[in-house]
Amino acid sequence: MARTWFVYIIECRDGSLYTGITVDLVARFEAHRAGRGARYLRAHPPRRMLAAEACADRSAASRAEHRIKQLTPTRKRDWALAHPLMASA
Questions:
Q1: Sign of the dihedral through C-alpha 17, 18, 20, 23
Q2: Pair 40, 18: CB distance under 8 Å
Q3: Nearest CA-CA partner of 30 in 10, 55, 7
Q4: Cα–chain-centroid distance for residue 81?
Q5: pLDDT truncated to tens, each residue of the chain (89 aa)?
Q6: Distance CA 53, CA 7 (A)
Q7: CB proximity list for 86: less than 8 A, separation 6 or greater
Q8: Which of 11, 24, 27, 88 has a CA between 20 and 30 Å from the CA of residue 37?
Q9: CA distance 8 to 61
């Protein structure tokens, strides 16, 4: 059974942005809030998940993550506006 991978952006309490990939948006955000996972988010606690986009597979999600990480913070926020969270996420 194929899993859906997502690329996502989290806004941190200090206003910075974090980009990552996962198969479970809710569980990943809760892990970040609990201080597990990305070291960056231990130093910059997450405020909210801004956006997410479904990808065909892990490879596509990784490519999307890399592409987004190259954007300026303003462009990342523009991307987030174009990829709002789904009601179930």
A1: negative
A2: yes
A3: 10
A4: 13
A5: 678 999 999 999 999 999 999 999 999 999 999 988 888 999 999 999 999 999 999 999 999 999 999 999 999 999 999 998 865 44
A6: 5
A7: 52
A8: 88
A9: 9
Q: Which sequence spans correspond to the domains of the chain?
A: 5-82
The residue among 26, 65, 66 whose CA lies nearest residue 46 is: 26
Looking at residue 14, the DSSP 8-state letter turns out to be T
C-alpha angle with apex 2: 4 to 54, nearest 5 degrees? 15
- CATH class of the domain whose range is 5-82: alpha beta
